[in-house]
Design brief:
mainly alpha, DUF6580, 6 helices, transmembrane helix
């Protein structure tokens, strides 16, 4: 893939990520983790970081920023999810699902730990931490579903386009007359 193609794909992922955060949607059912995973797997380490951060920043310009410790944790989780994408060498459905699940669990564990640690809502005890995780379970379901859905869409669409492009290229090859 050329640098120009990578930049175009990254711009599309950033635009989609930001736009879908601004449109009405279920809590935590958003394309950022799927875009980060895709960027890591297909575009490389630099894009694994730039794509989710740029999409989040663009969305947060409209939605508003929030407490810095939580913001840094959320952004950090998406960066790590992008870096998980760089570990996907064979782009199989199983590998994409496993990487997506890893990103979802990372996000759940880290962000709810940060809510427990940095907010006044929960006692700073083990019971408080468990209460934070328990309260977040409905959001976790949406995170899992959203991450799997968008990773499937991004990876699936790209692979489908590659197959269609290869077929179109073959259709235009000259036929040799014997």
């Amino acid at each position: 893939m050329t640098k120009k193609e990578k930049i175009i794909i990254a711009a599309i992922l950033i635009a989609l990520g930001a736009a879908f955060r601004l449109l009405p949607h279920l809590w935590n059912f958003a394309p950022i983790a799927g875009a980060a995973l895709f960027a890591g797997a297909y575009l490389g380490r630099r894009y694994a970081i730039v794509v989710p951060v740029a999409a989040m920043l663009l969305g947060d310009l409209f939605l508003g920023f929030y407490e810095w410790p939580l913001l840094i944790t959320v952004y950090g989780c998406f960066i790590l999810t992008g870096l998980i994408g760089t570990l996907i060498k064979k782009k199989s459905a199983a590998n994409v699902v496993l990487a997506s699940l890893a990103g979802s669990f990372l996000f759940f564990l880290a962000t709810n730990w940060a809510v427990w640690q940095f907010s006044p809502w929960y006692a700073k005890t083990f019971e408080g931490l468990m209460a934070s995780y328990a309260a977040a379970l409905p959001f976790f379901r949406n995170t899992l579903l959203g991450d799997l859905f968008y990773a499937g869409v991004f990876f699936g669409a790209y692979e489908a386009v590659k197959v269609l492009a290869a077929k179109a290229k073959l259709a235009f090859l000259p036929v040799k007359n014997s």
